[in-house]
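Researcher: For the record, we're logging two predictions in this thread. I'll number them. Prediction 1 follows.
Model: Prediction 1, sequence and structure:
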Amino acid sequence: GAAYSRAENNIRKLVDLCGLPFLPTPMAKGVVPDNHPNCVAAARSMALQHADVIILLGARLNWILHFGLPPRFRQDVKVIQIDICAEELGNNVRPAAILLGDINGVTKQLLEEFSKRPLKYPSNSEWWKRLREKIINNEERSKGLALQKSLPMNYYTVFHHIRELIPKDWILVSEGANTMDIGRTMLPNYYPRQRCGIFFVVLTQQAKSMYKCFHLAKCKYFSILPNASFCRYNLPVLIIVVNNNGIYTGLDADAWKEMLKFGDPATCVPPVSLLPNSHYEEIMSAFGGKGYFVKTLEELQNALKASVADRQTPSLINVMIDPQSERKKQVCVCFPFLFCKL
């Protein structure tokens, strides 16, 4: 991939020179900063569905990108695939052109060719106009949800205040269902090699202990052992668990009690529901770190400020949100057997 190849400098130059819209996959977040004017992450569905030519820089046409097939993509879309693995070329969609090689090396060659034959897609094209209109529309809808003050909080409110208080130079590691999907546009990445997985946080901090690392997790992805490592080595890590008592959706404490009246929870509780109001922050406290249990916006802001100020102690903020909180309404054209990744 682009991040593993350390191709960010060449790819950023390529994006600037060609003027094309770009869309990062979760593993490539930060290779080109999310605040770059050519980033169309906030119009992802439109960009995928209506593009007539797509250049794949190390990305694979798997379930993350809907296998490159209709209805998420045009039937006649032309794919130019660049990948270091020959066995990945042509999976699911036959490319119109292929470039086999290291992403950094290939983009360097493309830049050399651009210097001889400059080509820039016009920023005033109809395609760019449609994408920008969609970006503005989606951002306005997200902003409306983010500014809601009702309790329990929703995803957008939590992410909005995280974005306001977390420094831009922190390493962001994000994962888990709606947490990662909504975070794609609500939480900008500015630096490459921002990964999924709490064990990547451990490795990052062992290699670069001078950086504060911020791990955003869904409660199902929370793990005990890394917390012991964080505290053992006093790693400057902040974990935020966005806790809706489930996977995608959960049950509040009252609904959980009512559900138990029907019998064994193994058979009558929905499989996506987890134990309500679990205190994940106590695991961090047990190892000597700082834990915060948050239910209100004021509590969230205070916990974030305290965690940001303390560069010596790992922290965990367990943020309770509405169990039924979901993404803003989507126009879904996905395969019915997959979790929607709009």
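Researcher: Logged. Prediction 2.
Model: Prediction 2, sequence and structure:
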Amino acid sequence: MKKVLLSVVVVLILLPLAVIHASAATNVQVNATSLNLREKPSTSSRIIANVPNGTVLQAISTTGDWDKISYKGQTVYASDQYLKLYITKYKVNATSLNIRETPSTSARILGSYAKGAIISTHGQTGDWKIVTYNGRDAYVSKDYLIAVTASNTTAKPLTTGDVIVLDPGHGGSDPGAAGYGLYEKNITLDIAKRAKTKLEANGAKVYLTRSTDVYVSPDARAAYSHKVGADIFVSIHNNSYTSSSANGLDTYYNGSRDEDDNRINPYPAKSKELATFIQSSTYSATRLKNNGVKSESFIVLRKNTVPSVLVEVGFLSNSYDASLLKTSSFRDKSALGITNGIVSYFKKY
């Protein structure tokens, strides 16, 4: 799809490693039998240490496919293929906790958490915890957080009462974006089918707007949510742009009325939350460039009857993104990210 760029027991969750900011120490955990820590970011570089599965490390920054690690007073490198984010949950212990753009009380306020909110953090810099907000890193003061005990984090499982529509973009006579021998209609269908399998394994009832290579109009896709009694609608696409340098991941919701028909999705706030969950988890799963959550008036969003989002997984006009999308393993990561975002949404609603 063409789109312009634009002392308590602490509960821990593992997600694939996201992009790390050099100014912060991000907690990561070894996700392999063992992992070599090397002097330089190369498999031919000298091995400084070998650490076992489950070891928690502090990552400083990312260089290509390597993460710079602070280890016992040394700077070493580890392949990010074998590392995952180490997430810690906290409860907000203030009337309102500001979410800031940078780790400073003078930084711009992006939003806030209410008292009692359970939040996930994935690192710390000074007295600030790192959180994901609107798909990007943000910061909250650790002074107003208390660790969450296991008894307070019972998650709502998905059930067959949770009805989800997955919408593989394009199809049939409409191939969508194309590049490097790939067609969007084929990739979106593959990712959607994988996500369907994963969501059903979590207990949900899942419908596809198409399960074969056929054309379905945008209006028919939007109307399908009402037809099957869906709770949410997730449209899956790949992006494209005139410049081959454009790349990454975007997720859209409909937050304003369309200038032509004056329509707007009836659930803009919930749609934005769903978009934020999916952007964050898919970003973590795929390591694609994070282009953030945005508002658009696509027909499948504004004419829908339930919270709805459209996720653009990579650019077929970009050689790197296309090389990833060619592989079944990356498509599976994309499906996992979408699934995790949906599960997070249903845990809240």
